[in-house]
């Protein structure tokens, strides 16, 4: 992708020129936002709290599904509590686990499907609505859906202390968050907000900060989960996660100023009614059919394809622990240290790497994305060739510019689209990419099981090949 072409007038069709004539509206909104907001309060702290809450409870949720499935099948509570842990190698417990795991895996798979498939329609509708009526209401709607989901999960965990709970109720608990668009619309709207309030010089840097806040929340929640369980209980953990979501919503409602100012006659009630109007659907269809130059369409689809390939390759993490345990005899504690180092470097790449490369070296976004993806390729090959555990740390340490591609590619898209279509595109793009984990889990689990006896490291080369495909698409 040649970024120098972005400044060329020939890249837009006549239909796009009319849309881009309204770009001054976005800039004026951005100026008004900066004038109204003294401290530049944005969504990052709330987004970090949301991600922290999800990561804090995710591992324990899977454990609860296994436990409830075991209890529903009639096994003793003492045996069910040992499933999925490293505390009991007893053959009897292993036999129970072999019976319970398939049913529990079915529940977990349906949850993944709901979180991946259902948000697509909601992300498209709310994305279009956000482009017209504002970013803040959409984030609050999605956040309230997340709150309802965690209120249901907390209630189910509390009730499970007294009665047996059918594990399929956990599937229903995810519906309130998925229908409004789930994580795709949450991320899309916040990135659209960043597009509104930034300019071409600092947009990629700010998007890197948003990416870093997401990763920081996930990392902190993952590692805090173990200690919270040691100090409290499962129900207390879910209560803590729910409280984090409440704090995030209160923060947004009280302190974050919207970047879009709707017209004076656009009351919230009538605006929400338009969410289900045929006019909004017609606007989405017209946006998809609007005449654009071939250059713009190609770049937008290349971004979506690249993001999908990156998400597909990320599925290798599902078998990472099995690989290190088999080849290097690592325990979960040692593998956790490796994940901490790896994730910390990605966060630093977004917090420090992007600002340094943009401000000091003035590198374009496409070059940042290429360097990031190339780093993933080298890191995966290095892991596959490693013969000692310390070499994995060396591999991830020597490729410390990984993870910058998301912010860079989103920034590229913001150059090509008018502000009235940013959230729509981000929403549908993230919803499409959100479908990829359905394939990545099946791909890497089946590939690893087929090769683990002869070459347990082979999946790293498959990962490198997928990253290489993304590199070719970008090139």
TrEMBL record:
<dbReference type="InterPro" id="IPR011701">
    <property type="entry name" value="MFS"/>
</dbReference>
<dbReference type="GO" id="GO:0016020">
    <property type="term" value="C:membrane"/>
</dbReference>
<feature type="transmembrane region" description="Helical">
    <location>
        <begin position="103"/>
        <end position="126"/>
    </location>
</feature>
<feature type="transmembrane region" description="Helical">
    <location>
        <begin position="207"/>
        <end position="229"/>
    </location>
</feature>
<dbReference type="InterPro" id="IPR036259">
    <property type="entry name" value="MFS_trans_sf"/>
</dbReference>
<feature type="transmembrane region" description="Helical">
    <location>
        <begin position="235"/>
        <end position="256"/>
    </location>
</feature>
<protein>
    <submittedName>
        <fullName>Adenylate cyclase</fullName>
    </submittedName>
</protein>
<dbReference type="Pfam" id="PF07690">
    <property type="entry name" value="MFS_1"/>
</dbReference>
<feature type="transmembrane region" description="Helical">
    <location>
        <begin position="335"/>
        <end position="354"/>
    </location>
</feature>
<feature type="transmembrane region" description="Helical">
    <location>
        <begin position="425"/>
        <end position="446"/>
    </location>
</feature>
<feature type="transmembrane region" description="Helical">
    <location>
        <begin position="391"/>
        <end position="413"/>
    </location>
</feature>
<feature type="transmembrane region" description="Helical">
    <location>
        <begin position="138"/>
        <end position="159"/>
    </location>
</feature>
<feature type="transmembrane region" description="Helical">
    <location>
        <begin position="295"/>
        <end position="315"/>
    </location>
</feature>
<feature type="transmembrane region" description="Helical">
    <location>
        <begin position="171"/>
        <end position="195"/>
    </location>
</feature>
<keyword id="KW-1133">Transmembrane helix</keyword>
<keyword id="KW-0472">Membrane</keyword>
<dbReference type="GO" id="GO:0022857">
    <property type="term" value="F:transmembrane transporter activity"/>
</dbReference>
<feature type="transmembrane region" description="Helical">
    <location>
        <begin position="458"/>
        <end position="474"/>
    </location>
</feature>
<feature type="transmembrane region" description="Helical">
    <location>
        <begin position="366"/>
        <end position="385"/>
    </location>
</feature>
<keyword id="KW-0812">Transmembrane</keyword>
């Amino acid at each position: 992708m040649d970024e120098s072409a972005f400044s060329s007038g020939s890249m837009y069709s006549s239909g796009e020129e009319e849309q881009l004539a309204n770009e001054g509206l976005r800039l004026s909104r951005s100026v008004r936002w900066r004038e109204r907001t003294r401290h530049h309060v944005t969504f990052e702290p709330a987004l970090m709290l949301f991600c922290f809450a999800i990561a804090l409870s995710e591992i324990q949720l899977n454990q609860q599904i296994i436990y409830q499935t075991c209890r529903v099948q009639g096994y003793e509570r003492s045996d069910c509590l040992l499933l999925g842990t490293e505390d009991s190698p007893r053959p009897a417990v292993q036999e129970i686990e072999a019976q319970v795991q398939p049913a529990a895996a079915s529940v977990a798979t349906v949850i993944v499907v709901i979180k991946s498939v259902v948000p697509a329609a909601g992300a498209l509708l709310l994305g279009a609505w956000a482009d017209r009526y504002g970013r803040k209401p959409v984030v609050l709607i999605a956040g309230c859906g997340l709150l309802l989901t965690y209120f249901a999960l907390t209630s189910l965990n509390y009730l499970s202390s007294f009665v047996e709970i059918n594990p399929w109720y956990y599937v229903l608990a995810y519906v309130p968050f998925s229908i409004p668009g789930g994580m795709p619309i949450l991320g899309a709207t916040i990135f659209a907000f960043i597009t509104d309030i930034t300019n071409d010089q600092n947009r990629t840097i700010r998007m890197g900060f948003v990416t870093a806040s997401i990763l920081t929340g996930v990392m902190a929640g993952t590692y805090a989960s173990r200690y919270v369980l040691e100090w409290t209980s499962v129900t207390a953990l879910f209560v803590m996660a729910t409280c984090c979501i409440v704090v995030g919503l209160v923060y947004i409602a009280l302190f974050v100023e919207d970047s879009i100012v709707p017209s004076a006659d656009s009351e919230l009630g009538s605006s929400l009614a338009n969410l289900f109007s045929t006019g909004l659907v017609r606007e989405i269809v017209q946006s998809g059919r609007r005449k654009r130059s071939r250059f713009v369409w190609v770049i937008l689809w290349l971004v979506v394809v690249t993001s999908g390939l990156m998400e597909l390759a990320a599925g290798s993490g599902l078998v990472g622990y099995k690989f290190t345990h088999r080849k290097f005899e690592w325990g979960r504690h040692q593998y956790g240290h490796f994940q901490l180092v790896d994730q910390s470097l990605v966060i630093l790449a977004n917090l420090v790497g992007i600002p340094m490369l943009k401000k000091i070296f003035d590198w374009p976004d496409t070059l940042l994305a290429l360097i990031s993806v190339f780093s993933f390729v080298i890191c995966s090959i290095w892991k596959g060739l490693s013969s000692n555990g310390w070499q994995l740390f060396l591999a991830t340490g020597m490729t410390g510019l990984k993870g910058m591609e998301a912010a860079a590619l989103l920034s590229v898209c913001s150059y090509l689209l008018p502000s009235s279509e940013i959230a729509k595109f981000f929403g549908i793009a993230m919803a499409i990419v959100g479908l990829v984990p359905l394939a990545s889990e099946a791909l890497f689990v089946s590939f690893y099981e087929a090769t683990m006896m002869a070459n347990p490291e082979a999946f790293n080369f498959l990962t490198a090949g997928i990253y290489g495909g993304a590199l070719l698409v970008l090139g």
